[in-house]
Amino acid sequence: MIRNLVIAIVLIAAGFGLYTVMQDEPATTPTVAVEPVAAESTTPKVGMIDDERIKNATSEPGNWLSYGHGYEEQRFSLLEQVNKDSVSKLGLAWFKDMQSNRALESTPIVVDNMMFLTTAWSRVYALSAITGEEIWSYDPKVPGAWARKACCDVVNRGAAVYKGRVYVASLDGRLIALDAATGEEVWQINTLIDRDADYTITGAPRVANGKVFIGNGGAEYGVRGYVTAYDADTGEQVWRFYTVPGDPSKPFESPTMEMAAETWKGGEWWKLGGGGTVWNSIVYDPEFDQLYIGVGNGSPWARDIRSPGGGDNLFLSSIVALDADTGTYKWHYQTTPKDNWDYTAVQDMVLADLEVDGVDRKVLMQAPKNGFFYVLDRSNGELLRANKYVTATWATHVDMDTGRPVEDPAYDYSDETKWILPGPLGGHNWQAMAFDEKRRLAFIPAMENPLSYSMDEEWKNTGVYKHIVGGWNTGIELGNIMQVMAEGGTPPKVRGYLKAFDPITGKEKWAVEQIHHWNGGTLATEGGLVFQGNSLGEVKAYDSDTGDVLWSYNAFTSFLAPPITYQIDDVQYVAILAGTGGGDLFGGESNHLASTTYGNFGKLLVFKLDGTAELPQPTALNRSIPVQPASDASAEDIARGENVYHSTCAVCHGLMARSSGVVPDLRMTNELRNGLYKEIVLDGILAGTGMASFADLLDENDVEKVQAYVIHRANEDRAAAAAAAED
Ligand code: CA
């Protein structure tokens, strides 16, 4: 152990290559401000955001007051200085290096002249919204080892600002209130029912009526989902709503849980967690004083393991309306009864007033992972529309009489492998869609990315499902994924789109196909524009009516975060965070990804008309794979290593040991690190960077086999590169 400590210290002192970069040091570099601005407007003013202001957010388009702009979460701005005619003059006003190489997913909040945003590891920054000057920053000091509990990167999607405070939830499950003027901590509380369980928080809290609402993630690992409301003043718990029932031999928390338990049959789901985590969308509706929560997938994914006796498994994959003051259940709509595919309904929800079949309705809209776009009457949850917005093969249609999807038996994977669309990334993920009410169009970052679904082989062979504490528990076969993919036959093509979708007709107005599937959220404006950053590293402005590209800027950094816009002293700004990762680390290397080519150096970019700031030109990474250590591993050893790698390592380090450039590419492992595999994987000498010990899941033998597989893969790709160079 002392030897390992010494090694760790030596490595850290030596500035140890990629791993040290991965530490995501807190930002210290000042922003590049490009032009002097009047001192008066740059003096930080901390505007008092309250319920009324968020409710009337559209009446002050100069600000961006809450996660989705206002309580409706339409991500639509009435600003129009930047419009179809002027957008060609849009240029960089300033940028800030966020000292991060993990995904940046945050929506900044802008009030008066201050901007509040979050970065990886749940850090918070308060900046001048005019110059980018840092006013304060706050680091909740999330333990690096907590990264192991995060299915989808150490990300954070944003803060809430309310009555002079900034609220942020940390990856390790704390809710923290900061003084908006100084960044001083006012209070922090633990939101987790069990800190040993694999919970994480990546979502933005929402605020209303003096309460802060927050959920959590962790369904892949096996946890029970819930949402909690806290007193914004004191941090005291006001109410908690569980999304799935607990152990039925114990008293239920509420009659609602008793009702939900009747839809779970035959298994011991409470031992597997059940899932249903609320990791992204929570929307407050002032018109009905309701809170809508988007509920996630089942844990494990495969329903035959989770609930072998059948049943819909409430409230998995559902939109649930709660009384915002008491947390009492009001209604629900389940998008995917008996979820079997990781079809979360946690995607962002948009509230709007729309005429539907001649009747004015207050609607809620969502494009969840399952590929259908839903329009509900939010007064009662009545289903008004359900149309496919992408290719979805698991179900033929939604029966509008019953409100239920009709599954296609041709895609039943209980006995044989099936390529199914959408896959676990969904037809649309957390990357927010924007909604233009006048045009009646939702602008969706859509995907068609299939998965070869196949039941867990051990369960198939023995009938016993082994729940792995601290690992992924999907119930579908991941270890032998390469063989499973081959068994599934020809996969459907992977595609990415930006789609303008009419929720009432259920038809696309236009669609732009994109080169890579994993792109950013969207912003729509009165200027007739839709803004989006993509995985190639470009931010683009599209014509809202036609999808024509009117402006494009190459930032050489892949995007996921949604852009926002604001206006101060008659200058309209468009701001967006760059930096990829998130849920598609598994997808790995791609020659199209800016992160693969240039690395993943997170930054905040702010544009205005006639902006003249320039980003430093990046240099392409040296991607040649180093010479590997000699290995006498047998084919069986390598096959065993491949299985362990894909069960345990691939979700972060990428399919076939090819990383997207966000976390270290193991094929690039140098001689020194190749000599420290066991110290890294078992002793956890790099835990501080997020690479915690896996000694609870793997032994020395496993690690040797994984290393043999990675060396084998590195040699294969070296040989392929050499052959290509000779051609
Ligand atoms: Ca999931």
Report low-confidence residues grouped into runs of 5 or more.
1-39
Strand content: 25-35%
Annotated CATH topology of the largest domain = Methanol Dehydrogenase, Chain A
Number of domains: 3
Tally of separate helices? 14
The CATH architecture of the largest domain can be given as: 8 Propeller
CATH class of the largest domain: Mainly Beta
The rough form would be described as globular
Provide mean pLDDT, rounded.
93
**Main β sheet profile:** 5 strands, mixed
Question: Structural class of the helices, strands and pairings?
Answer: alpha+beta
The count of β-strands is 39
Q: How would you sum up this structure, described in words?
A:
The protein is α+β, with helices and mostly antiparallel strands and 727 residues long. It folds into 3 domains: 1-30 and 624-727, Cytochrome c-like domain (Cytochrome Bc1 Complex, Chain D, domain 2), CATH 1.10.760; 45-74 and 106-348, Methanol Dehydrogenase, Chain A (8 Propeller); 85-100 and 506-610, Beta Barrel (Thrombin, subunit H), CATH 2.40.10. It is 16% helix and 28% strand. The chain is built from 14 helices and 39 strands. The strands form 11 sheets. The protein has a 5-stranded mixed sheet, with no helix packed on it. Strand 23 and strand 24 form a beta hairpin. The structure holds calcium ion. Residues 219-220, 296-297, 342, 344 line the site of calcium ion.
